[in-house]
Design brief:
Blueprint lengths: L4 E2 L9 H7 L9 H18 L5 E5 L2 H10 L7 E6 L2 H12 L3 E6 L8 H10 L5 E5 L1 E2 L4 E2 L2 H8 L6 E5 L11 H4 L3 E5 L10 E6 L1 H9 L9 H8 L10 H17 L1 H21 L14 E5 L6 H12 L1 E2 L1 E2 L8 E5 L6 H17 L8 H11 L1
Parallel strand pairs: 1-12, 3-4, 3-5, 5-8, 8-9
Antiparallel strand pairs: 2-10, 6-7, 9-10, 11-14, 13-14
């Protein structure tokens, strides 16, 4: 018998009670029963996003909400600023290009966070820039960007909004949308929300909604105005992923019962334990200065095949971890600890890492990583 475990930064592991709820007989999405579920979801999402605004829900991957945050916010002739510090930062630029939006890139070294001062300098010297697009966590590198500081800068520019891809940030660490003045905040279901892929979320500030009113880019399915109108009736504009909505109600209940502060502390503890284990094994973090609590990106030691290491995780233990993407392929592995993870989960994956490294000829004291993680988790 072999169990399977997901330690990729999306999809992540799912709670049993959520799976059971989603396995119940399906309902029709125009029935009062579904409207009741939708109403609970709306309230739960406002709590999670820490906003008084409506959080729009789309049946799509998170990229759908990213696309909508370009097509609904900008207009023909607008210019954007894009932080590119990994594959998902590059995606913002690709979406802008698809809609004919001219953008200024800030290319950040992979494994490093963007310097807010660079954003400030560009905004001051290249008016008018209508939107700044960035990640909260750059999932491909494990970096956390300084969103609070960036939002403070952007807030000074009356005709510029900050758009944050927090797909691997929401429900992991504190990103209070209203308190920080974030204009567009995006997430997805398959990360800290502990659901399968298939739902995307977008919340907009009053400032951002003014941009929506004047946007003239083409849009149809990802039409924020249309979806807002439907959401206020506890409906979606088009056929939703009904079972995922049912599961979402359950995961939002779980998050509220645990409490946001406790959720953030749990993720911080798991991340700290994983990073302590990495260092105890003599390995290096790919994002040493500003690591995200969503995942830990680990540099592969010299002489070890990173792709082979990832394969062995699954072959030997049924564990899925993520390898590096693009220029980081074969150079790092990424271990997730966002969503439905607890202390013993991290001990297990660190133990597997130790056994595989020993098998592949890496020299270290067996058990040193597990011991370092346990010391953090027991503190």
């Amino acid at each position: 018998m072999e169990k399977k475990y997901l330690f990729s930064p999306g999809p992540t592991m799912l709670p049993a009670q959520v799976l059971l709820r989603m396995a119940e007989p399906i309902m029709h999405h125009r029935e009062p029963e579904f409207e009741k579920i939708f109403a609970e979801i709306r309230e739960g999402l406002r709590y999670l996003f820490q906003t008084k605004q409506e959080v729009l829900v789309f049946t799509s991957s998170g990229t759908g909400a990213m696309e909508g945050a370009v097509s609904n916010i900008l207009s023909k002739g607008d210019r954007a600023l894009v932080v590119r510090g990994g594959k998902f930062g590059e995606r913002w630029g690709e979406i802008c290009k698809a809609y004919g939006i001219d953008f200024i890139p800030i290319d950040v070294e992979w494994g490093r966070a963007v310097d807010p001062k660079k954003i400030e300098q560009i905004l001051e010297s290249n008016p008018p820039i209508r939107a700044v697009y960035t990640q909260a966590t750059e999932t491909s590198t494990g970096v956390r960007h300084p969103i609070k500081e960036i939002a403070e800068i952007v807030r000074r520019f009356e005709d510029t909004v900050i758009v944050v891809d927090a797909i691997t940030g929401i429900g992991v660490f504190d990103i209070p949308m209203d308190a920080w003045g974030i204009d567009v905040l995006i997430s997805g279901s398959q990360k800290a929300l502990m659901l399968p892929p298939g739902l995307a979320f977008a919340a907009l500030s009053d400032k951002a909604w003014k941009f929506v009113e004047r946007s003239d880019l083409p849009k149809y399915y990802f039409d924020f105005k249309k979806e807002l109108k439907s959401a206020k009736k506890n409906q979606s504009s088009y056929t939703p992923a009904i079972s995922l909505f049912v599961g979402l109600r359950e995961t939002l209940k779980m998050i509220r019962e645990e409490g946001l502060e406790a959720v953030f502390r749990r993720h911080e503890r798991l991340a700290s334990a994983t990073r302590a284990a990495v260092k105890a094994l003599g390995l290096e973090l790919f994002a040493p200065e500003t690591p995200s609590n969503a995942l830990t990106a680990i540099k592969i030691p010299e002489g070890i095949d990173g792709s082979k290491l990832q394969d062995l995780f699954f072959e030997r233990f049924g564990i899925t971890v993520a390898e590096g993407q693009d220029r980081a392929k074969g150079k790092i592995i990424r271990i997730a600890h966002l969503g439905y993870y607890e202390r013993l989960d991290m001990i297990m994956v660190i133990s597997a890492l130790e056994m595989l490294l020993k098998e592949m000829g890496y020299a270290f004291e067996l058990g040193s990583g597990v011991r370092a993680a346990e010391e953090v988790l027991m503190a």
